[in-house]
Amino acid sequence: MNSTYQAPSHLIKTPEEIEKMRVAGRLAAEVLEMIKPHIQPGVSTFEIDKICHDYIVNVQQAIPACLGYGAAPGRAAFQYATCTSVNHVVCHGIPSENKILKQGDILNIDVTVIKDGYHGDTNMMYIVGGETSILANRLCNVAQEALYRGIEVVKSGAYVGDIGAVIQKYVESERFSVVREYCGHGIGATFHDEPQILHYGQKNTGMRLEAGMTFTIEPMVNAGVWQTKTLGDKWTVVTKDHKLSAQYEHTLLVTDTGVEILTPRPDEDLSRFTS
Ligand code: MF3
Ligand code: CO
Ligand code: CO
Predict the structure, then answer these.
(1) Atom 3 in ligand 1: which residue has the minimum CA distance?
(2) Residue 219 belongs to what domain range?
(3) Which parts of the sequence bind a divalent metal cation 1 (predicted)?
(4) Domain containing residue 201: CATH number
(5) According to the annotation, is 249 in a ligand binding site?
(6) 49 lines ligand 1 (CB under 6 A)
(7) Probe ligand 1: pick from 112, 192, 230, 235, max atoms within 8 Å of CB?
(8) Is 92 a known ligand-binding residue?
């Protein structure tokens, strides 16, 4: 039985909030662009995080949302501005001086900034040294296309389940798998709000999308099985089979006729999306 439900009114942003989301989103995307030339073999993920942190704080005069986030019983808060997830790390990789990038690694940098009280959240893959294996390259391309296919179904009147359904169908048709334990999320003055955006599931289910909602889509795509495990540091999520994983994330605004991407970058061709 399929069930659907309406969005609670607090998830619908005002025009003033939407403008603040645009600013925060633009800043988050600019961090991902700024860091690109720094990603080279021999550089540590700690150094990359430090450059991002200082740019967010000193140049953007914004707040890195991940720094100090997520303390829980038995788990210390995250201590860095970015998550840096290399190869078989699915998400929430902790920047480290000991993690030195090498030619052919695939790296995800996930950045969330707070500006004027609102969050912008985005991530992308980088190929260290510019070249990698055919498999790793295809995995990154499939993860990005999975995000784009999810974005394409977003419009007022669609359902949250439509997003996961289209992503799962595409990823599995490419003989890869979709991570189940982590999902996209509503975002605004709150970092992780309702609704959860699962990257798998069934169309015509879940919350109905309405103009003015803002949320992320952030599919994690694995080369092998979808199952993950979390390391002893309580943050780093890795694939259970230690095969590669890739992810892309945008923050989005639902419009009456489609979608506005709040975290666009100049390296993307976004002409297929109607706002
Ligand atoms: N940016 C991540 C997301 O996409 C969340 C990272 S939380 C952290 O939702 F604490 F690990 F940084
Ligand atoms: Co997110
Ligand atoms: Co993120």
Answers:
(1) 121
(2) 4-273
(3) 110, 121, 249
(4) 3.90.230.10
(5) yes
(6) no
(7) 112
(8) yes
